[in-house]
Give the backbone structure.
Amino acid sequence: MANGPVETLTFDAALAELGEVVARLEAGGMPLEESIALYERGVALHARCAHLLDDAELRVQRLVEEAGGALRAIDLRPDDVDDEAGTSA
Amino acid sequence: MTDERPWERWLRREPGTPDAGPPGPEPPPWGQSAGPAVPAPGRPTAVPSGSNRSAPGSRIWTVGDVTRAVRDVLRAGDTFRDLWVEGEVGQVTVSAAGHCYFALRDGRSQLACVFFRAQRASSPFEARTGLRVVAHGRLDVYEAGGTYQLYVDSLQPAGFGDLALQFEALKAKLLAEGLFDAARRRPLPRSPRLIGVATSPSGAVLHDILHVLRRRWPLTSVVLAPCQVQGDAAPASIVAALGRLARWQDPLDGTVPDVLILARGGGSPQDLWAFNDERVVRAVAASPIPVVTGVGHETDVTLVDFAADVRAPTPSAAAELVVPSRQEAAAALAALRGRLVASTERALGAGRAALEVERRALARVHPATVLAGERQRTAELLDRAGRAIERRLAGDRDRLGRAADRLPLLVTGRLAAARAELGAAAAGLAALSPYATLERGYAIVRAPDGRVLVEARATAVGEQLDVRLARGALDAIVANVRDSE
């Protein structure tokens, strides 16, 4: 079983681990304590996925090339894009 | 120019013209006759006997005969069925029915053209006075006017022919190089962490793409490489933008784009021309990151589309293509949750069964007093596990939502039943007489104060002990204490 706090997992990683947890529970044959631990991990993973699905906010950045050719990214808020779209064809 | 006058006449006539009717021989403005004066069809009329214009072997034709004869000549070969004509558009008149009449001119002559409403409707390009155009259509005679005209079915800006030739030549060349091979196309990541977008930083396209991503899969990030998408500088600008995206790495988490969108909104073929540029096509083909193109409208096809890993019909469609659907992910998650609940229930059932086996083993070998201790310990363990689960479940209940409300009830119900069953069984065991054990040769030894002795050092030399056998009892005096055994 993968470990670490679920808060740092991406959706894909959390969903994949949840799949593993379910598969292990479905295979059975483990001590009760381990089943309960797996179940709790599964619930946490599910909560992580649900949270990401419900609350994720698209992050948008814009690349800027510096004089030396180095790249820098600046955050682009939704308003920025809407404003730009509104003022030009 | 005197050729303006018929147009004016046409315009004056316009209000009386019926507004209906399929594309057909609507009277054109350059016709001199106001109405059909068609003679009896068919055969040439005999020369009137009083004519002084008779000549040997000749006859006098009706107007209609001449017109139809010319028409037949025009229609006879393939020459005039499929014509491309380039010229400058003269004055344009649009009838109430939506048909467009104009003349094509060059330095020497002009050609009357009709562009019917149905064909105009599907054309991205309109005839405008002064424009150089290439018109395609068939040449035919308008009988009522005694004129021939080009029945236009498509109209392109002049120069289009050159561009079309360039397009085909470059396409053939790159095709031969294998740039468009299907085997080159790479699969897209199922759910990208970072999407690189190369498009104009202003305008509706970026807005549309971000709108789709926010709605469909906001669990990702976007990095925009702004570029010009139109004009002479566009190809180099697009190539540079693709290059920046390819070497971009987020300094915070090291993320690199795992898919690129190259997009532009709809426009004329000239507007989209940068996307047929060889440099751009090659840059897309050489991109180390899979590229999805969304250029123009659904009907627009540019050469980058052939080189792309996936061609989307529009910018919005490109955004749809690169990310999974939030709805589908939620459905998959809900299915896993259902299986998590079901498998945990089964696991708890198995744990209970295992506990039962151990309990039976204990009941066979241990004296009741020991068993009682075991029972209590087991009950405590089970209680602790139960409390942990119940606490956990109480917290989970909110998070899992209504659909999962069944879970805590099922699990706690199952645990309560297990506890009750275990309790009943242990109580039965406790009722067993400890003296039954004495029949197998065990003895119970008590100190003078009634304590049951389980270790030697709990007593001392000289102390009087009560030894209870299966039948009868002994008063014994301790002669020696061997603590080490």
User: Anything to note?
Assistant: Chain B touches chain A through 52 residues (CB under 8 Å). Residues 327-432 of chain B form one domain. DSSP finds 13 helices and 13 strands in chain B.
